[in-house]
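To: structure subgroup
Subject: Chain for Friday's discussion

All,

I'm putting the inputs and outputs inline so they're searchable in the archive.
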Amino acid sequence: MNWLRLLLILGGGLAVTAQPSTRPFAHDFSRPSPAVRDLNALLESIRVANQVPALAGAVVRSNQVVGLGAVGLRQAGVSNAPVTLEDRWHQGSLTKSMTATLAAILVEEGKLRWNTTLAETFPTLAPQMNAQWRTVTLEWLCANRSGAPGELHAGGLWNELWNFTGPPVAARRRLLEKLTHQAPHSPPGTKYEYSNAGFALAGHVLETIMGQPWERLLTERLFNPLEMRSAGFGVPATPGLVDQPWGHHLANSHPLPIAPGPGADNPPAIGPAATVHCSVLDLAKYAAFHLAGEQADTAWLQRASFQKLHTAGPDNANYALGWNVVDRPWAGAGKALHHAGSNTQWYSVIWLAPARQFGVVAVCNLATAAGPNPGATATDQIAAQLIQEFLGP
């Protein structure tokens, strides 16, 4: 099943009737009951077809997991250890919407504003910034409209961040200082450009104002309230052990396991853009949280804040605050929200249909930096097939 990645995840041909739910987000959202559909057979067929080490996926409807599965091996070709439902998967750029959600929580608390600027947050650094950077707002950073570049190779900055050995907060401060000395890639607030650096700066704004590292803030303000106990940062496995899935590259068309440790993940400087890991079930909890918030206030965030997070910006960019916003017939009388994540060794996708209170997440422990990407193909196939089977024509 490829079919141009199944018409870019069923972009047409599935007319449905919306079935919205007003059920509030359940704080006790937890492990599903035995009645939940076992997805292992479906996942295994897709895993074998794409020759990937392992896959996991989950389906959410009305704040309940209704489908769940995990198949394959933690480490291809070396260990026979199978993946489990409790295993942790690197989520890559799914981290972006989590950072934006954290920002929304702190905005509601009055700790800062969506239009808080870099100059306000870093007054002692502002005189050394290029003048355009001083006006950049938190919202622009989370909407990929800040002027932050899509890559950081200029001037050797990316290599410097890779080799930086200080704490993550200091790494993000280094990124801020180096990046803002130069002119933005485009005039702030005028153009969409997908950027890890922009979200890294957003995370540094939050941690600077709150006086706590972004990692701690995200854990205490988002993961702990949602009982996402598996959530953490960086590659999930312990160096030297196969206690969690390993990431994989393709080498001569075969999965090559990448040992946990230095160089196995993105540098901590861009943590707020791309370094969260968690189990597939905890990712489903996060999906359910965003679905519920479109219907009613939750205990931690109001409906208006969710709607802001899910509303695309101008210029037809279709990018909101950490989410792609697209029209899909199967999403019912509303929009579909989507994002993918990868550190070139893992691949994750999330699809939400808020009007139908429906969501799908899929994860794989193989990806590539360029060329054919079996992890992307496999997770897209999972999402497309589950959308068809659970929502139907």
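Points worth raising on Friday:
The longest helix spans residues 374-391.
Confidence is low (pLDDT under 50) at residues 1-30.

D.
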